[in-house]
Specification:
Helices cover 34% and strands 27% of the residues. It has helices spanning 5-18, 45-56, 84-96, 124-134, 157-170, 197-208, and strands spanning 27-32, 35-42, 63-66, 69-70, 106-111, 114-121, 142-145, 148-149, 179-184, 187-194, 215-218, 221-222. A hairpin with a 2-residue loop joins strand 1 (27-32) and strand 2. The longest helix has 14 residues, at 5-18.
């Protein structure tokens, strides 16, 4: 039985108010047949992701449309916006000081406060990590991630698929029969219908952190009518 949209809305709002990473007063929540839309402006990408994650955790939520915009200067408007050169210096410092990215060459350019990353890493999760390191830097509007994933060891698609499925089977939050895993040239494709956002995240992470993965295409659908 589907939960009423009004109850879902109230729970999402309560979840946002509870989360100290978010100023819930800046987020408007609407729900239509279990489909949540988040609108407003937040000061960081961490807050944007946190709001989406919080909404996915609420019972009855079928999907989340995250339309929140990020204004990294919203919390400190008395300070002038950093120049592209200043942003680039911060970006390069963040990349160099990341232990996970040690030994990898990632080149960054900044134009109009938008960062573009190029280079290569040996694991998909490191590509994601590089992007996430930058999104909360002051002044950064967004990131285009062109970093290539070049695993140092050749892992066959069959071995990758088995590794992902084994990780899903070990996870108490996922029923392995709900998720179909296929791999094409190191690109993991997740298909299926899962009961909640926690399950979707767990399945996605099983693919993200597996050895040999070059990319993840998450096509999982959340349905609380399972």
């Amino acid at each position: 039985m589907m939960r009423a949209d009004e109850r879902i809305t109230a729970d999402v709002v309560d979840q946002l108010v509870w989360d100290d990473r978010i100023d819930a007063s800046m987020v408007a929540v609407t729900v239509d047949q279990g489909e949540v839309t988040l609108e407003g402006t937040v000061p960081t990408h961490t807050a944007r992701w946190a709001a989406e994650d919080d909404a996915r955790l609420v019972a009855g939520v079928r999907s989340v449309s995250n339309e929140l915009s990020v204004d990294s200067l919203a919390a400190s408007s008395e300070h002038p916006a950093p120049s592209d050169a200043e942003i680039l210096a911060d970006v390069e410092r963040a990349l160099v000081t990341s232990a996970a990215l040690s030994g990898h060459t990632i080149l960054a350019t900044v134009a109009g406060a938008w960062v573009t990353l190029e280079g290569s890493v040996d694991a998909y999760w490191k590509k994601v990590h590089a992007e996430q390191k930058l999104l909360d830097l002051r002044g950064v509007v967004g990131v285009t991630n062109k970093v290539a994933v070049v695993p140092t060891q050749s892992v066959s698609d069959d071995v990758i698929a088995k590794g992902v499925m084994d990780a899903i089977e070990r996870n108490a939050n996922v029923r392995v029969e709900d998720v179909e895993v296929s791999v094409e040239d190191g690109r993991v494709i997740l298909d299926g219908v899962v009961p909640n956002g926690v399950t979707q995240v767990a399945a996605h992470n099983a693919a993200r952190y597996a050895a040999g993965v070059r990319d993840v295409d998450d096509r999982l659908v959340v349905s609380y009518q399972m």
